[in-house]
Write a structure and sequence with these properties.
The chain is mostly helical and 251 residues long. The longest helix is centred in the last third of the chain and has 26 residues. It is globular.
Amino acid sequence: MNLLRGIPAALSLYTKIPVLLKNWNDGDYRRAFLFFPVAGIPLGLLSFGLWYICEYFHLPHIFTTGLLFVLSFLIVGGLHYDGFADTEDALSSMADKEKKLEILKDPHAGAFAFIALLRHAVFYLSFLYLWIEKADEKMMIFYGLIFVLSRALCGLSSSILKKARSEGMLYEETKGKGKTVVISFICWIILTLFAMGCIDVYKTLAVVVIGVFFFVYYIHMTYTNFGGVTGDTAGYFVVIMEGLSLGSVFF
């Protein structure tokens, strides 16, 4: 039962959904990371519901696209986009590793961060619009599963890759987890890909290929620029993986 307390803890930590968890303790905080992919489930379900309502009332697809994009901020907040912006700022600085790590900790966003956010928004909205144009109920379920998969892959990378710092949220979440958390995220990935495959094999294969290439790039990028992964680069991982996965719309 104590393990299952990690589910509401994960929703509380990784989403804006109000969750009542009595007698919160450090154990719940550590267990929350095991259920990181759970945070993608309510976003997927609500996205499906919002799309269904928009389709029922025959609203323009461009309007539906905008609503779905805003929904992700309402449910998740700026948690992952903050990490994405900080990482882009650091990467664009052309500084050494130590300076880049300092930029990650800087609470202020630079010009490069805003440019990266704008670029990502254009990319994401464009592919999301194409998705909505072709969407049926199965495609929207597939879309919802992308949120779960991106978090499972992020959790796996955060668990097995070297940490850039021996402090911070990511370090504390993964400290002393060992094989348990790795196996947990691998199971999440397998189950999510199986569900995706039941919906559309070709899109699932496209997502797998995209995920493998991005995973390799992420390892190279984080090790080269920061000496390892951080909480900010984890946010970068989620944001980019979600956006790239929408590219499977062409398959």
